[in-house]
Amino acid sequence: MSRLRAALPLILLILAGIALFGSGLLDRLHPEQLVAHQDQLRAEIAAAPWLSRLAYIGLLTLAMSTGIPGTIVVIFAGGFAFGVFEGTLYSSIGVTLGSLILFLASRYAFGTGSRHPPAIVEKLQHGFAHHPVSYTLFLRFVPVLPFGLVTVSLAWLRCPLWLFIGATFLGGTVMLIFETSVGAGLGTVLAHSAKLGPGLLLRHELLWPLCGIALLALLPLLIERLSRRWRRH
């Protein structure tokens, strides 16, 4: 009974994520849908600027706290609606708050973490035990694994709260700059084109932020090769 009570917050988050995913709300944030209704969207933001921004932060916080797939669509929508600077700022708040909620719920559910960890946690356990600060920062700055999965894994590893918040905010913001830029670029490109297509990816509004995301994704391989060479010498 006590174990069920400890897992209840995490169970509620999972149920909330299922409800959000099944509601179809994320489908309405697809770039083509945003372009089709951009005049209405701009009018609603102008009529209620603070409420619209709080609603966006709240939606991203909910999406991140549940760990559902598709949160990238929300981040793109933030860039589309608010631009790169504001979109990145609001997304950073939502990502940090949502991740913190998921982290605390997971740590409460896992207790002391004395039980045998899942396979993914075992893979991270060695590096975290030897270099907790640098390893946590690395996991947050480099998109090696899904954001929510890393959050749950760090909760099992009993990552210090201050380290988790700092790494999530800093590392998440680095990635969000590129992701929000893609959303803002989509708004510019789709305003002059009817459909998404491979040719749009060659437009500079999308090409440079996509290259930035690709470089971050390749960073673990580069670091691994450099570390191997360093160990050989």
Overall description:
- With 233 residues, the chain is mostly helical.
- The protein is 80% helix and 0% strand.
- It contains ten helices and no strands.
- The mean pLDDT is 79.
Which structural class should the secondary elements be placed in?
mainly alpha
* Largest sheet report: none
Instruction: Provide a count of the helices.
Output: 10
Element order: H for helix, E for strand: HHHHHHHHHH
Termini distance? 56 Å
Assembly context of the chains: single chain
Instruction: Please report which band the strand proportion falls in: under 5%, 5-15%, 15-25%, 25-35%, 35-45% or over 45%.
Output: under 5%
Regions with pLDDT < 50 over 5+ consecutive residues? none
Query: Which shape, going by the Cα principal axes?
Result: globular
* Helix fraction by DSSP (H/I, runs of at least 4): over 70%
Average pLDDT figure: 79
What is shown here, in short?
The protein has 10 helices and no strands. The protein is mostly helical.
Q: Which helices and strands occur, and which strands form pairs?
A:
Elements: H1 2-22, H2 31-36, H3 38-47, H4 49-66, H5 71-110, H6 119-130, H7 132-141, H8 147-156, H9 161-190, H10 204-232
Helix pairs in contact: 1-4, 1-5, 3-4, 4-5, 5-8, 5-9, 6-7, 7-9, 9-10
Name some characteristics of this structure.
233 residues, globular, mainly alpha, single chain
